[in-house]
Amino acid sequence: MASTETFASAKVNLTLHVTGQRADGYHLLDSLVMFADCGDRITLRLSETATLTVSGPKASGVPTGPENLVLRAAGLMRVGAEIGLEKHLPAAAGIGGGSSDAAAVLLAIRDLTGRIIPEQGLSLGADIPVCLIGQAAIMRGIGEDVTVLENMPTLHAVLINPGVPVPTGAVFQGLSRKDNPPMEPLPPALNFETLIGWLGQQRNDLQGPAIVAQPAIGDVLRSIAATAGCRLARMSGSGATCFGLYETADAATKAATVLQRPDWWVQPVRLN
Ligand SMILES: C[C@](O)(CO)[C@H](O)COP(=O)(O)OP(=O)(O)OC[C@H]1O[C@@H](n2ccc(N)nc2=O)[C@H](O)[C@@H]1O
Ligand SMILES: Nc1ncnc2c1ncn2[C@@H]1O[C@H](COP(=O)(O)OP(=O)(O)OP(=O)(O)O)[C@@H](O)[C@H]1O
């Protein structure tokens, strides 16, 4: 039967403004998202039955049963599939590992079978719609409203996860205000300098409550901010992964070298 290989990129929330709360408790977001050139690798073969093998350096603790988002994605597409998931992204880390895997599987099955991805994709995770797009975008609502951004400069970054899981729901509950201001409009001429200047004026509203829940995030942010050439240090999603932005790939690589710690996942990346 037909088979394919695909890549599930890390999602990075460069900004994350929480602007309100719906009646069902979900929070309204206004977030600039980009995608890194690091991620999980997936092999998929259409089959009579659904099977999953999880491997790779970040496989530990990732569910191998029907609750894994890749099997739920195949179920949503109503096909059986033998899936191999090679985990390189830390789980429950604010970089959408599970959502990105699920989106990659939805797209792979669509391409192999011609089936349409159902609207319920969002039920697998709030980041599924933006991960289906897979390029720089603004995400609003609870994630269902995605506007693609063309002409974004490639950014050089370091991603750091301190190895402590942060439950997304608990971080949202720690917010003192739900009705924070949305992002300001993006500058008309987008280049590295104008984007950095604008990003510095925006926020991740979940960063404060995440540091309260997990003080190690504060240590990571201070360490990133102290590296040579760091122009912005911030947390992604609900944490605990944080990123530093640099003008050149060389500066990001050098920062990654000095930021190595035994328990930290440290990755120099390009963001697009
Ligand atoms: C924070 C982000 O990473 C930003 O990209 C995502 O919105 C989180 O997406 P996710 O990990 O797919 O989150 P989900 O699995 O959908 O939600 C986990 C829990 O976080 C809370 N949650 C999540 C998203 C949202 N907009 N409002 C919320 O209040 C809810 O309590 C929910 O039960
Ligand atoms: N394919 C998968 N990869 C990682 N985790 C998965 C997967 N499928 C299900 N999970 C479960 O989902 C939980 C959240 O993992 P995920 O990596 O999606 O979180 P996240 O990086 O915080 O996402 P987000 O940025 O969307 O908040 C994990 O604790 C894990 O138990």
Automatic annotation (TrEMBL):
Catalyzes what? 4-CDP-2-C-methyl-D-erythritol + ATP = 4-CDP-2-C-methyl-D-erythritol 2-phosphate + ADP + H(+)
GHMP kinase C-terminal domain ranges (all copies) = 196-260
How would you classify this enzyme at the top EC level?
transferase
A Gene Ontology biological process noted in the UniProt record is: terpenoid biosynthetic process
Domain GHMP kinase N-terminal, chain residue ranges per copy: 68-127
Q: Does the record bear Ribosomal protein in its keywords?
A: no
Detail which positions bind ATP.
P90, A91, A92, A93, G94, I95, G96, G97, G98, S99, S100
Catalytic residues, per the record, are K11, D127
MF-aspect GO terms:
4-(cytidine 5'-diphospho)-2-C-methyl-D-erythritol kinase activity; ATP binding
Described by its record, this protein's role is as follows: Catalyzes the phosphorylation of the position 2 hydroxy group of 4-diphosphocytidyl-2C-methyl-D-erythritol.
Protein name as catalogued: 4-diphosphocytidyl-2-C-methyl-D-erythritol kinase
Q: Which organism is it from?
A: Thalassovita gelatinovora (Thalassobius gelatinovorus)
Query: Source organism lineage?
Result: Bacteria, Pseudomonadati, Pseudomonadota, Alphaproteobacteria, Rhodobacterales
